[in-house]
Specification:
two-stranded antiparallel sheet, binds beta-D-glucopyranose, about 5% strand, Glycosyltransferase, about 400 residues, mainly alpha
């Protein structure tokens, strides 16, 4: 990571929560464009009337709502006081999950009876924006998004001071918790929608986050016990070469393994193996100051992702290494374009031109505006905003009337 220039956000809480506006002279050149304000506006703009959150408005393959992306976005919205938008996403998820209740129930039932399940029989990773299930050959069996949804819902209820689960969401919470309980230790596709025959460490982290949230929301000890089983599985089976590895089938590093600690707390940030993991991730995955997914990634040339660079910053914030956290923040801030867009990944065209071109030929240029990228930028800014003190680099302001409008 490059060394930081000392930007730390601070300020006061407005009635609507945190809204940040960076000042030009305290951040690096391009980041003057990268205001948290515009990221919040992007997240709100990419929310449909239905409450669904579009993964990317400018990339045809991403004109869907993923539970993974959407749930991190809802969490980011809660961090900046946009609870109404977050609630609308959770209401949409509740309806989408309600729409596939028979699919989930059958999967659990067949699993219990030991019947063979084809990935096509499994609940989807992504939905159409109206909440319907998309019938296509996407690698749908990815349980992490369901865990992340429960975790984000738990965070939403906490941050809005609600005890327990509102009655209208209870069925979905119980059903998803049962689904995770059943499939927690089943191989499935990972957070990158790849390698469907392995148990993935970051998927286990998301499942743990979901099960612990559900245990609390439903006051269910059995779910907590199941979460502890997942935690033991990570501790006992995911440590190889002195660090947490990518999956049951790969000793590689993977930047999504960062979520083991922040936010899902399967392990503490100071856990020795986790410290080694972070070092290995940085050593093997840094690209021009940002973080790539995993060493052999070829998707659009395997560039560096704002989502992951911000995740690393979030970890550094958790351990109090503010300079490192700010370096990550600045890298992300430097990758907004003049129109306030923040893409999925950067640098793949130089790192691996052949694979970059291969993907461009297949799907067109990579997503130039990824809602999840905005979300993780906002999450990192919000995490740094409570630091305060001498590093003042931004002010908290109320949104403009324009943004109030977008929020509706
Ligand atoms: C990523 C997923 C993500 C999806 C939509 C895929 O390329 O691998 O993690 O959910 O894009 O953003």
């Amino acid at each position: 990571m490059p060394s930081g220039t000392g930007l730390v956000l601070s300020g006061e809480r407005s009635e609507r929560g945190y809204i940040f506006a960076q000042t030009a002279n305290q951040v690096s050149r391009n980041s003057t464009r990268a205001t948290v304000r515009s990221s919040i506006a992007s997240m709100l703009r990419n929310q449909e009337k239905s409450g669904a959150i579009v993964a990317s408005p400018d990339f045809a393959e991403y004109r869907y709502c993923w539970l993974r992306d959407g749930s991190f976005v809802a969490y980011a919205l809660d961090q900046v006081g946009e609870h109404h938008a977050s609630a609308r996403y959770h209401e949409w998820s509740n309806r989408a999950i309600g729409g596939i209740s028979a699919l989930i129930d059958r999967a659990i039932d067949w699993h219990r009876k030991g019947k063979a399940l084809h990935p096509d029989h499994m609940p989807p990773a992504r939905f159409a924006l109206d909440g319907s299930n998309v019938a296509d050959d996407w690698p749908n069996f990815q349980i992490d998004g369901y865990g992340t949804w429960l975790w984000a819902l738990g965070q939403h209820l906490l941050s809005t001071g609600q005890d327990g689960v509102p009655t209208e969401w209870r069925d979905s919470v119980e059903r998803v918790a049962r689904y995770l309980d059943a499939f927690a230790l089943s191989p499935c596709f990972d957070v990158w929608e790849e390698s469907g025959s392995a148990l993935h460490t970051s998927t286990l982290a998301c499942v743990y986050g979901g099960l612990t949230a559900a245990a609390r929301l439903l006051d269910d000890e059995d779910l907590l016990t199941r979460a502890e089983t997942v935690q033991s599985r990570v501790r006992d089976n995911a440590v190889r070469l002195g660090r947490y590895v990518k999956s049951s089938e790969s000793d590689d590093v993977d930047a999504s393994v960062l979520w083991l600690s922040t936010p899902f707390r399967v392990v503490e940030p100071g856990d020795n193996y986790f410290v080694q993991t972070v070092q290995a991730i940085e050593a093997r995955l840094s690209l021009d100051g940002g973080l790539r997914r995993y060493p052999t990634d070829t998707y659009f040339g395997g560039g560096a992702w704002p989502v992951l660079t911000a995740s690393l910053g979030w970890h550094y914030r958790a351990v109090g290494d503010l300079d490192a956290a700010h370096s990550c923040l600045e890298w992300v801030a430097d990758h907004f374009d003049d129109d306030g867009r923040l893409g999925e990944q950067f640098g793949g065209e130089r790192r691996d031109p052949e694979h970059y071109r291969e993907w461009v030929n297949r799907w067109g240029p990579p997503a130039r505006d990824l809602t999840w990228s905005h979300a993780m930028y906002v999450v990192l800014c919000a995490a740094l905003a409570d630091v305060g003190g001498s590093h003042t680099g931004s002010a908290l302001t109320r949104p403009t009337s324009n943004q109030e409008e977008t929020a509706k």
